[in-house]
Write a structure and sequence with these properties.
The structure is a single chain. The chain has 171 residues and is an alpha+beta fold. The protein is built from four helices and eight strands; from the N terminus they run αβαβββααββββ. The strands form two sheets. A five-stranded antiparallel sheet has the order 4-8-7-6-5. Strands 1-3-2 form a three-stranded antiparallel sheet, with helices on both faces. The radius of gyration is 15 Å and the shape is globular.
């Protein structure tokens, strides 16, 4: 978990990354716990409303969680974040989001988290289906670290321990 935070913070110095096992989907009250942590940072009451997606006045936020870990990222521009347990994402699952123009991804989990992060970053400009987003230009930039692009921005996927995570920034 600390490795993911550290690597993303280094790659995206203007993005705040917050991960915690207490934000995992198997943790009772995880949604509220995530929102309370977000509220402590941004001091905006509306982020506590679990009935609505969190929207900040001057920044952008994206939340993700899997069974063992969850978190959120905050950035000045549109941002998307996704985290998954690597073993959970099979090639059959990833195929459901495939576009004929997608470049071959390093792993199914890398592809899945990249698509999810790009989709989340688009906010109210999201296409009706995720397969409309084209992911390409995969580049290995380190051990289990990959950059990728889409026509609306770029991102990075990290694999650390049991998790694969992605951050995507709009341009």
């Amino acid at each position: 978990m600390k490795e993911i935070t550290s690597l993303f913070s280094h790659a995206f110095p203007k993005v705040q990354v917050h991960l915690d096992s207490n934000f995992a989907s198997t943790s009772t009250g995880f949604r509220l716990r995530i929102r309370e942590a977000l509220h402590e940072i941004v001091n905006e009451e509306r982020v506590l409303n679990l009935e609505k997606l969190p929207a900040l006045k001057k920044e952008f936020v994206s939340i993700s969680h899997c069974a063992s870990l969850g978190g959120f990222v905050i950035a000045a521009n549109g941002v998307g974040f996704d985290i998954e347990e690597t073993q959970r994402v099979s090639s059959q699952v990833a195929e459901r989001m495939k576009n004929a123009f997608d470049a071959a991804a390093p792993t199914p989990a890398a592809f899945w988290t990249a698509k999810e992060a790009a989709f989340k970053a688009l906010g109210d400009k999201q296409p009706s289906i995720m397969s409309e987003i084209v992911i390409g230009n995969w580049q290995r930039v380190g051990d289990e670290q990959f950059k990728f692009t889409s026509d609306c921005g770029s991102g990075m996927v990290l694999v650390s321990g049991p998790w694969t995570a992605a951050i995507f920034l709009l341009v």
